[in-house]
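Annotated sample (chain length 525).
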Amino acid sequence: MNHLFSRSLFTLAALIFISSPCSANNTPGNTNLPTPIAQAIKKSGIPAESIALSIDKINVKSPSEKKYLSKSLIHWQANIPMNPASTMKLVTSLAAMEVLGPQYRWKTDLLTNGRIQNEILKGDLLIRGSGDPKLIPEEINKMLLNLKSIGVKKIDGNLIFDRSAYDNSVKESSFSDGEPTRAYNVSPDALLFSFNSFSFQFFPNINNDLVLIKQTPRIANLKIDNNLRIIEAPCTDWKKDINMSIGVQKNGEWLASFDGLYPSGCKTAFWNVVASDSDSFLLQSFIAAWEDIGGVWIKKPTLKNMPLLSNFKPIVTHFGVPLYESVKDINKLSNNVMARQVLLTMALEKSGKPGNTNNGMKIVKEWLNKNQLNMPELVIENGSGLSRVERISSQHLNQILLLGLNSSTNNYYLESLPIAGFDGTMKHRLLDKFRKVVPNKKEAAALEKNTELFPDGLKKYGAYIKTGSLVDVRSISGYVVSRSGHVYAVTSFINDRNANAGRGIHDAALSWLLDDGPQAHPVKH
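Output written by the structure step:
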């Protein structure tokens, strides 16, 4: 991928956009940046003009009113539009919960042009999707069990997929990194099933030098050609000596082939691969799912894709998991296609027309305007951050964080954030920090007092941070609760060809906040 910005572009942007009082075209040595952060920038070799940083202290307006205000601490190049990578999901997910409601559930309908007679559905079965991002095997099973519960044991007809809830344009994207089979590149689909991905799990048997391969979801005509051998080696970069291919054969059968060397140090491992043919993937999965619950096909169904016709009548409506559960996956696991589907769902529900990205972006901007937030630099291509063109400034993403705290959905929002050293994309971050530093009794008492009026998700010492990464981008955004209970909003973007060297900058900023740095060493404006 070509790098996203050049240094000259950053310099030009700094001249065009008005800097906040503590922002600027300053050098890393300026006292406006805390020493640990300035040192980390110098060590990284990343130029200061490739970095944006916003840190605000969050306060409670009054004990009687749980409204939160922010006090500006550091705003380094805070007005400059930057590529946020996956931290853009913080905008999309909050907007969705406020626009649709956290309890919103997607519908997937089963309809037929036939009739049920003697426990046989005589007619075609049409499946109409609304973009449920978590239509996984367990949910398909529930749907089909509901079909059985109304008296259907056999189906004598074909399958029809109705994907008309989404505009055809949604599969178009400027992002391409040459890895179409990687799970993070899955395209949106109004009938997205199991993220349109095969998940292979490997279990080595050292005694007979064989590797057992299991696969989900089960599909009706998948063959696994397993030629893996075990080699004595640690579980690092375990895929490098394995050749894998998967595709649909001329006879319609899926064939997954594995050959090469599997390291003994991997007690188990997962490999997720995007299906090249989403129609065949869903068709064969649906056939298998009906058989797995005891259902019978009078004949193997063929497939059509078409929108709903008037002669089809509804027989089963399946409601998916609530939105707030999907938001947790979107932010903790940084699921791109789920974020994209959430944006398209807002467009679908509010416009009454097939969802597309432009309408989704309009809905988000209308929501921002309703909350008196003007973000002229905001660019949303798909809402996931998997984009070369998405933009937001660090100070405006901090304003989203403040809005999240003042939202009626704040507990759901906070629960969705990765926790440093514990889970999600922050599971392995700052581990040494948390092993070495534990609040003492005095700090623990202060922490309890200072966070008393904050939501439950911000009552414990820690960093609750959404991360983002592209080849030339590293980003963090979220909340930090210091050892003595001071709460901060922090957003930092690094847009540079050497952005992968910037992890130390972000860890230095988070560590400084965890250690009550702003209290011990106030930043002079």
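Annotation: The chain is about 30% helix and 25% strand.
Annotation: Confidence is low (pLDDT under 50) at residues 1-31.
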